[in-house]
Amino acid sequence: MAIALLVVLTEPIPGREDQYNDWYTNRHLGDVLAAAGFTAAQRFHFVPSKLSRNPPPAPYLAIYEVDADRREEAEEFLLAAVRTEAMPISAALGPGAVTWWFESMCDRVEDGEQAGASTSRRSEAGT
């Protein structure tokens, strides 16, 4: 089953980072997961490294997972819920959030597995 990821970059209003992080982690992630179709969510923050040639447009990243077949439904529900009692937006959230949808192209590969191995084993087993 294909999954879709909603990728969101955001930043807080200067000086309100603690309020922003508390709201985002303890309220907003749950509000989004309550929307139809969303199945998982996780937040990250940017860490500069030798691989980072350019910083992202905002330092915080949220990734939301949706069954790809329900992406449009999830997006419509999310758009209808935002800025309502079901999904209030914190005043600590800065302007200019950046969002993208990505859809999986293959199964997830984890440590100790080879890409395509599960497909090859199924073929060998006749399934």
What does this 3D model show about the protein?
This protein is of the alpha+beta class. The protein has a single domain, classed as Alpha-Beta Plaits (2-Layer Sandwich), CATH 3.30.70.100. The chain is 29% helix and 24% strand. Strands 2-3-1-4 form a 4-stranded antiparallel beta sheet, with helices on one face. It starts with a strand and ends with a helix. The model has no long low-confidence stretch (mean pLDDT 90).
Can you tell me the CATH architecture?
A: 2-Layer Sandwich
Rg result: 18 Å
Number of domains: 1
Ends: how far apart?
16 Å
Task: Look at the structure and give the CATH class.
Answer: Alpha Beta
Helix share, percent: 25-40%
- What does the largest sheet look like? 4 strands, antiparallel
Topology order in helix (H) and strand (E) letters:
EHEEHEH
Question: Poorly predicted ranges (pLDDT <50, ≥5 residues)?
Answer: none
Mean pLDDT rating: 90
Structural class: alpha+beta
Q: How many DSSP H or I helices?
A: 3
Strand content: 15-25%
- Total number of beta strands: 4
Give structural attributes:
alpha+beta, 24% strand, 127 residues, 3 helices, single chain, 4-stranded antiparallel β-sheet
Offer a quick outline of the entry:
This protein has 127 residues and is of the alpha+beta class. Helices cover 29% and strands 24% of the residues.
